[in-house]
Amino acid sequence: MIKKIIGVWGESHKGHKRKLNEDRFLIRELPGITILAVADGVGGNGNGEKAAEIVIDAFQTYKFSGEGIKDDLSAALENAAKRIHHEINKNSNLAGMGATATSAILYKDKIFWIHVGDSRIYLLRRKKIKQITTDHTFIQDFLDDGSLTIEQARTHPLRNMLDQCVGCDEMEPDSGIIHIKKGDRLLLCSDGLTMHLSDIQIESILKMNSIQEAGEKLLNTALKMGGADNVTLIVKDLY
């Protein structure tokens, strides 16, 4: 699945090891507003795919306006959580179904973002990358206190274990606002990318001239390095 709009590029690939692609992404253009989102399903057996679709549909159908975007993001995410819990209550076989949710809305000179799980937002500014989101994983605390290095965390057996998601019993999303500067470039991605590429590698590729060139290089590099999970990414130039 590939989507290209002027100034933004997105693609999702199931990788080389997974039978299903349980990632989903959204690029939605409204007058004066751009909505980007990535969701990575958890729960297996296609249930994660269903959860990711619910998350993306919540951002696709929500009536965002130019005012109150921060509250709109929270409401859209809460709607997704309610819908997932409703599906689980209807069918006990769906227990454990959930998804990450990482969304950014561009409005005027700001980026409004919200995040649950271990998909990520990166900002490239003046050719330097910054990770905007923090992973909601069990090993993040060990990274924060220095018990694990980033390289150790990349191969840790619990690296993919989330401590919150959309559909989990606990959901406390992070959110924030970024003031856009001319020349900024935004990346949203699932952990299928970051499990293979370090921040230094991502930075090096993200600096490439065109967003399509950068996006395709990021995806193909993750696939060449194993493609052990679904890989999804959106690259957006900010003017």
What characteristics describe this protein?
239 residues; Phosphatase 2c, domain 1; six-stranded antiparallel beta sheet; 7 helices; globular
SSE layout and pairing:
Layout: E1 2-5, E2 8-13, E3 23-30, E4 33-42, H1 47-61, H2 69-90, E5 98-99, E6 101-107, E7 110-116, E8 120-125, E9 128-131, H3 140-144, H4 150-154, E10 174-179, E11 185-189, H5 191-194, H6 199-206, H7 211-224, E12 231-237
Antiparallel strand pairs: 1-2, 2-12, 3-4, 4-5, 4-6, 6-7, 7-10, 8-9, 8-11, 11-12
Helix pairs in contact: 1-2
Characterise the protein shown here.
The protein has helices spanning 47-61, 69-90, 140-144, 150-154, 191-194, 199-206, 211-224; strands at residues 2-5, 8-13, 23-30, 33-42, 98-99, 101-107, 110-116, 120-125, 128-131, 174-179, 185-189, 231-237. The model has no long low-confidence stretch (mean pLDDT 91). The protein has one domain (2-131, 164-237): 4-Layer Sandwich (Phosphatase 2c, domain 1), CATH 3.60.40.10. A six-stranded antiparallel sheet has the order 1-2-12-11-8-9. The two termini are 26 Å apart. With 239 residues, it is α+β, with helices and mostly antiparallel strands.
